[in-house]
Amino acid sequence: PRSTPLYSSAASDVYKRQLHENGYAVVDKSPDYVVVGEARTITLEMLERAVDLILGGAKLIGTNLDPNCPTQHGTRPGCGATLAYLETATGKKAFSLGKPSPVMLRMARKELMLTTSQTVMIGDTMETDILGGVQMGYRTVLVLSGGTRRSDLANFAYCPGLVIDSVAQLADRTRELDEIFPPVVLRSDDTPHDLQEWIAQHA
């Protein structure tokens, strides 16, 4: 709800500003929630404060579960790594509102006014992007420009519908891409018509 007091740990200034703009009060004392996002300025003092607040009763919320983030300078810890730290230190489990949470994926689909059969999840992480898409019944495209390698696919019980090296390939409407991107249809349902058929096609 609006005006809910929360403590924003490991979050960028842009993220904090968005919270303010949407009516949330970012506080340092007695918050209802501790919210963890992506940031490069995290400190031990911030983590210690978050631990105290969580042990004091605040609920732990994460914006996503990505364990790390590839950058031009290498790999840096992601939001999921910070959440794991706080979970271990407090014994409390975090609730993630981001990938692969169906909360975010369903809201995004509805915001775009798409049906399940029209939605394609494109991402570079198997544990979040592709898992979220598969769980929602969306078509999925794995891009190998992130931290996932083609050889990693054997480690998962699920798989993407399509694997590409770069998002630039999506501009080339080949037959393979046409098969994964469904045509525009007028359907108001929120689930695949035949989930088992979809699973078999993408196994």
Structural class: alpha/beta
Give the number of DSSP strands: 10
| Cross-sheet strand order for the largest sheet | 2-1-3-4-7
Helix content: 25-40%
Order of helices and strands: EHEEHEEEHEHEHEEHH
- Mean pLDDT value: 81
- Give the distance, in angstroms, between the N- and C-terminal Cα atoms: 40 Å
Number of discrete helical segments: 7
Low-confidence stretches: none
How would you describe what is shown here?
The protein is an alpha/beta fold and 203 residues long. It has helices at 13-21, 44-55, 79-90, 102-111, 126-136, 175-180, 195-201; strands at residues 5-9, 25-26, 33-36, 59-62, 68-71, 74-77, 95-96, 120-123, 139-143, 162-164. The strands form three sheets. The chain has a five-stranded parallel sheet with strand order 2-1-3-4-7, with helices on both faces. The protein has a three-stranded parallel sheet with strand order 8-9-10. Strand 3 (33-36), helix 2 and strand 4 (59-62) form a beta-alpha-beta unit. Helix 2 packs across helix 3 (79-90). The longest helix has 12 residues, at 44-55. It is elongated and about 55 Å long. The model has no long low-confidence stretch (mean pLDDT 81).
